[in-house]
């Protein structure tokens, strides 16, 4: 009998392991957008996102950012620390795009004077609404200290990733992070991939991320492959 996942997400499954403090993440090729309204598959996305996320988590570990990554046992599997995920999504933005561009009436591509951190309620039924510190306290999603830890870590991660990607001719427009509790500490979980970040080619402005799927721009798989290639030199 096939092993049942502990949790089934929109693009990943989580499986128990022999150790209570570790779980296995399985990356699938499924792609969704607009809170699951648009569905599709991106060939080899699971492999590409697992490799790209593993690369970023290793980089962040080297830079002293606590995260859930342990190892990448296979092309679609990531072994991670088992976290109690906080139901808050943290978005960091350097350049206006997507929902922020709409909300504040800026054209996409306009640089923000300083990084903007946003908090969203991780709740599929509600479509992940934008919330603030007051909502988080009212909903008891995290303590004020945990929110501060997430925001500080998110800004540090932004510095590390922005600098690294610039050398690869990739502009980090914005990205989403999820954090969880592990032995009482707030640590980074989930993934960092073209599904959860906006990457634009620094020279041409070409989109190298999930907006190609969301907006039907074509060459979706090629964009993900290009990101992996620029980061690691690997060709898939
Ligand atoms: O759609 P929006 O502009 O708010 O997205 C900001 C960033 O967060 C984008 O990089 C997007 O890929 C990411 N995001 C995500 N998961 C969500 C919402 C946004 O990864 N549920």
UniProtKB/TrEMBL annotation:
PANTHER family, alphabetized: MULTIFUNCTIONAL PROTEIN ADE2 (PTHR43599), SI:DKEY-6E2.2 (PTHR43599:SF3)
Pathway where this protein functions: Purine metabolism; IMP biosynthesis via de novo pathway; 5-amino-1-(5-phospho-D-ribosyl)imidazole-4-carboxamide from 5-amino-1-(5-phospho-D-ribosyl)imidazole-4-carboxylate: step 1/2
Family recorded in the similarity comment: Belongs to the SAICAR synthetase family.
Protein name, UniProt field: Phosphoribosylaminoimidazole-succinocarboxamide synthase
Organism domain of life: Bacteria
NCBIfam families (alphabetical): purC (TIGR00081)
Catalytic activity field: 5-amino-1-(5-phospho-D-ribosyl)imidazole-4-carboxylate + L-aspartate + ATP = (2S)-2-[5-amino-1-(5-phospho-beta-D-ribosyl)imidazole-4-carboxamido]succinate + ADP + phosphate + 2 H(+)
One GO MF term attached to the UniProt entry: phosphoribosylaminoimidazolesuccinocarboxamide synthase activity
Keywords: ATP-binding, Ligase, Nucleotide-binding, Purine biosynthesis
Cited InterPro entries: SAICAR_synt/ADE2_N (IPR028923), SAICAR_synt_PurC (IPR033934), SAICAR_synth (IPR001636), SAICAR_synthetase (IPR050089), SAICAR_synthetase_CS (IPR018236)
Source species: Dendrosporobacter quercicolus
